[in-house]
Amino acid sequence: MSVFFRLSKVTSPKAKGYGKWYPRAVITQTVDTEQLATIMQRNCTLKKADIVAVISELIETMADQLQDSKRVKLNGFGSFKIGIRGEGADSAADFSVSKNIKGLHVLFQPEVKKDGSGVMQKTFITGCSVQEAPKNDVDTTKPANSGSNSGSNSGSTGGNSGSTGGNTGGNTQPGSGGSDMN
What we know:
Helix content: 10-25%
Strand order of the largest sheet: 2-1-8
Oligomer: single chain
Distance between the termini: 18 Å
Largest sheet: 3 strands, mixed
Order of helices and strands: EEHHEEHEEEE
């Protein structure tokens, strides 16, 4: 198993990194609650219906706790909290909820643990590798100054394909074909 990526060129002249190529994660499918429950049922003694019921109650309970201004921590998974998007007021007296608060959003922070060598590792990416997605339409053999935004190949012919191996969440050096996993 690998996380797939495709190369994407920054084309906006105002953007940081204009003209450079960056890896972008490729999602191959979405796994929903029912599918997760089916997989989990194979690995434990609970039935799918029980797993779905627990996940449904977890979602409802988490929403209640988050909306009560609490952080929700799922051990071994990570923490959730509500964040606020707003605009600044010129002074505290000028601040009003209706004028300055523009929205709410949920923030997630994966759990972090130290590995045997003392390096911090995030849940979900420990041991993760990356691999170029099939049918990448970017020709990685052309020089950077060719002036072309993309090649006509339907597959990659350059050195970016393949797994980076056992990257366990540390920074991958530029040019190594991988990406930062932290």
